[in-house]
Specification:
Number of domains: 2
Radius of gyration: 19 Å
Number of helices: 12
Structural class: mainly alpha
Number of strands: 0
Distance between the termini: 19 Å
Largest sheet: none
Length: 273
């Protein structure tokens, strides 16, 4: 079994916490301080130049690191413009959550190899799928199918995988936060043009019922909003892109980005590291 102490995970966590500390000392709502911007870029460069290759060398594949790759790219985008401090904090929190899952997958890679190979999923994906199966079997099957589709080198379209991922999240939310429970809260109001609670409202209800603070709920709520926007954009792109080959060539990457955010939300809701 590989020891977490023998991997670069600890080094990455130190760099992220250092950047988090810089942010906490900032009093501005919009990040413009050179130390923070340079710190964010340094973390991203360090990850892609040194840490990621080391993780690959330890046995993790592109699928296992896909979520972390996407979040690191999001951090780089934030550093390229005057982004809100709140967005930085949310992204850093999601990155720290994701590396927890990567670390567990790395530590357990040997002992769980047979199970993971049989399912075709990495450690965190296996834990999410198994937990979903125990709560809502159809949600577990949808999530597992999407993971397998993204690993299928012969697959030509990934729109189905995006739908499976969204459906797994929707069913999990409906199970953990039935409409009647959400709407019965004091002061609850449906969002504009909606006849039922949104995914974002359900996430807020679940975490609030567990005694989580507003600061804790903001990250998964934001992730759910991004998921809805990206799934919708992917569906619309089928009609707006003139070349089918262009669409097929980029859809896998887009669905992997959606999956990265869904993993963050499900990890939080199902309390999976």
């Amino acid at each position: 079994m590989t020891s977490a102490e023998d991997t670069p995970i600890a080094e990455l966590r130190v760099e992220l916490n250092s950047l988090k500390s810089l942010l906490s000392r900032s009093r501005s709502t919009q990040v413009q301080a050179k130390s923070i911007v340079d710190g964010a870029r340094s973390v991203v460069n360090s990850y892609f130049d040194r840490i990621r290759p080391s993780l690959v060398g330890c046995g993790l594949d592109n699928e296992a690191l896909g979520g972390l790759d996407t979040l690191m790219q999001d951090l780089l985008v934030l550093s390229q413009k005057g982004s809100l401090k709140k967005r930085y904090e949310q992204t850093l929190k999601m990155i720290l959550q994701e590396i927890n899952g990567v670390e567990v997958a790395l530590v357990t890679s040997t002992s769980s190899k047979n199970d993971s190979d049989a399912l075709g999923l990495d450690g965190k994906e296996t834990r999410i799928a198994e937990t979903l199966h125990s709560l809502v079997p159809s949600a577990g099957m949808s999530y597992e199918q999407a993971c397998l589709d993204l690993r299928d080198a012969t697959r030509k379209s990934f729109r189905g995988a995006a739908a499976e991922l969204r459906e797994s999240l929707r069913e999990a939310l409906d199970h953990l936060a039935p409409d009647r429970d959400v709407t019965s809260q004091n002061g609850f109001k449906l969002e504009r043009n909606q006849t039922t609670p949104t995914m974002k409202q359900k996430v807020r209800y679940i975490l609030k019922s567990r005694g989580k603070s507003k600061a804790v709920t903001e990250t998964p709520e934001s992730a759910v909003q991004i998921i809805e926007e990206r799934v919708g954009a992917l569906a619309r792109s089928v009609y707006t892109r003139s070349s089918v080959s262009t669409h097929l060539g980029t859809s896998k990457e887009e669905v992997q980005q959606i999956k990265a955010y869904i993993d963050v939300v499900l990890g939080e809701l199902l309390e999976i590291a």
